[in-house]
Amino acid sequence: xxxxxxxxxxxxxxxxxxxxxxxxxxxxxxxxxxxxxxxxxxxxxxxxxxxxxxxxxxxxxxxxxxxxxxxxxxxxxxxxxxxxxxxxxxxxxxxxxxxxxxxxxxxxxxxxxxxxxxxxxxxxxxxxxxxxxxxxxxxxxxxxxxxxxxxxxxxxxxxxxxxxxxxxxxxxxxxxxxxxxxxxxxxxxxxxxxxxxxxxxxxxxxxxxxxxxxxxxxxxxxxxxxxxxxxxxxxxxxxxxxxxxxxxxxxxxxxxxxxxxxxxxxxxxxxxxxx
Length: 275
What we know:
The chain has 275 residues and is an alpha+beta fold. The protein folds into two domains: 2-115, no CATH class; 119-271, Alpha-Beta Complex (Phosphoenolpyruvate Carboxykinase, domain 3). 25% of the residues lie in helices and 33% in strands. The protein has six helices and 16 strands. An eight-stranded mixed sheet has the order 3-1-2-4-8-7-6-5, covered by helices on one side. The protein has a five-stranded mixed beta barrel with strand order 9-10-14-13-12. Helix 2 (96-115) packs across helix 5 (234-250) and helix 4 crosses helix 5. The protein starts with a strand and ends with a helix.
């Protein structure tokens, strides 16, 4: 099974063929038949079944050069960024999707700025009339709320994780298969889409609506607050900052104060051209 997320390809090896059915269905829009090509080697992820792994206990993560080892409830493993390899163990098939999500997401966070000139953001991505809008912020800022308000205003690509990329033909927004852990399954609609990125909004819940265009420096700092995993390593941090600095020259970044009501779209429509 090969998963392609904004150009980062992970080749997945499972402990049993019986594990593949649910995972193939989960990642269906992002599956590919072959690797990216000789210029970009794929990542290899081996998922193991280890029934002795517990469901409780303190989570930890450690870095030793290019190798990251980690432990969270029902999952432990190792990711080698130099060898483009990861191995992760989980106690049963029931935890396979969560385990694979965590490992592949971590790979994308590190690989996207280094290899694909792109950033992984904890954000909600919405497309309206072909224009991509990204609403980001730390936990509790309102990403899930904005996603729930999208309704008929636009197509919700994902409520938790998206990829953005600057480029010579303009910035792009990419969907991912990684929705919020608390999102009801019936509301999840995984799609593999890309769109022209026209706005980034740093969310802040407030009693009144307000919109402020951020300077380039303010915009980079706001983006940095959404994803610090990629910046925990010097090489990733350098690549991340380079991409972010170019991104904010191509797309407007705003501070958006908002109330959790559908009036949000009317407010943005009056202030910006989102038709």
